[in-house]
Amino acid sequence: MREVHLNQARAEREKFYKHGRKSNMTKSIKENKTWWKYSSVIIDGMTQWTTRLPHFRRMPSYLDRKDFLDVHNMGSIIENVGRFMDFNYANYGDDANFLLNVLHRDVTRIQEHRRKGDGEEPYPMPEVLYVQLDNVGTNKSIMLLAYISWLVMSGAFKKVKVNFLIVGHTHENIDQMFSRFSVRLKRKLAMTLDEMMEIAKECFSDGIFTTAVAKVHDLKTWFGGRYENVCGISTQQTFKAFKNEAGEVVVQYKMYSTDKKWLPEEGLKVLNCMPENLPDFVKPKAFSKEGLTKLEDLVDGMRTILSTTFTPTHEAWWAELLRKQRKLTEEGIFEEPNVPFVLPSKLHARLNAPLVHALEAPLRLAEAQMPAAAEIPARIQERVERAPIAVYTGKRKAVNRAARKAEAYVANPVWEVSFDQMTVNSYAVCFGEITGVKANDVCQFRVKLNGKEWSDPLMLVRVHARIVYAKELKYKYLKVKTYTDTKERRLGKVLAGKAGAFWENASDTPSTEPFKSAEILLAWNIAANEAKGCIPEEQYGQLIVALLAQRAKKRRIDNGQMEETEGDEDNSENEGNEEVPTCPDRSRPDQRCKDLDDGSDVEM
């Protein structure tokens, strides 16, 4: 299994390299590819602990780094364009909105580079954008899907594809860029952000572009109310936005980039319409008065400790920073230049066809001479062919451990209760309103599904007899002794597990009813030395999973993601059997329910 996982990680990484080769002019021409159609960018963030200001080669023992100024560094590498580092203070959160601002700046950088071209003639605008991101929660968001849909809807690209490497295997060339910067910082003293950006430019001989981010556009509010609530995207590794045959911009996904089929076939419509006007700016978080006081004390400490090393230039830089931050804290005014939101150019920009042919012609090869594409190894194909997890639009629902178990049992018929498993003296939990029973309400109870939600009414029964030819059972409904909440008929795990939590009235006559697995969630036998009249802890946990599985399967059927199957041929009246995946106790083979048919029609 470990080898399969590593092979899948290598395949995902190779896909990223392939996108880079297609976007790189030299490598693409060697592989007989039309490089100008593609553009590739990888984005990642650097740890803030390394880039705090001021930065010392050797940290003075009488300064506390907790009081330093946090600086966040977001890096980007764009094929054919260059390396970029965007620096900002801790006023802006490292969230999905900030990531989209970085990606939008990279899009404008790509198009600006294409407009410059070779200095005389422009390069064609790319038709396809490949984006490689780190596999973290802030990157996988509905906002990202809305933004790439907007890029296609606005005509900037024909297709935008986003890839995420497998968790634990995300170290790439951009991490090497951060590593060189970190090593260089260890040898340098940086008192201001300007000095830190100059150090970054010294890390690579071919150069690097640095930017101090003054303002962040509020893309979240800009897209607000115009996109659908998409759920279940955290388990997918690849997304793409494009226009379907009807001209609508839709999003498809794959569990892995090596999967052959994109899901769903019709695509998900994430963005409903184009946003109006231009986005506003995000109001930065203000420093607390205590935080500003600590920064002032830090400046006084540097002035005293560093003496001549702390120059008037440093003094002026910190004084201006404190003035702006104090005005933001006390008056709510943020003094920064107005940064316009640049709309990306459309694809119908003038193409430089002669330049493209001149670059590609010398190394263009005939298709017959091209090597055949490598096949996906069988060990990876086995991993690829497993059933994908569906993505849907609608209200988001939290998934806990029990719910994940339920999803695994949804399509597994092994967990469904059959007539043969219901033996004399076995217990079963039924759900739904049971008619024809006196004092029906005293037999009902509810169990807790999660922190706030309780199940529908349930009942605990004991089998007294089996009528084999008619597939009928004789039950006695056990009454609940004590409730957690009498009015709501709630019964918690602790009360349900105590011996005698349920009691059986000896004077009651067993109720004869046809067997319907759709009404039975769980069935189990108990050993002679085990407590009677209760739901054991193990069965209580299985009951929760069965309830969640039943609800999950019903939701999938309602969404058209699963098709109902017919029941057994010998159980034609068992309609809806597949809707209730249940969890009988199979942990003890000697306690499994068995058919005790001794040849008679009625078993007692």
TrEMBL record:
Residues 65-259 form the DUF7869 domain. Residues 558-604 are annotated as: Disordered. It comes from the Eukaryota. Residues 561-578 have a biased composition (Acidic residues). Coiled coil: none annotated. This is DUF7869 domain-containing protein. Signal peptide: none annotated. It holds the Pfam family DUF7869. InterPro entries: DUF7869. Residues 585-597 have a biased composition (Basic and acidic residues).
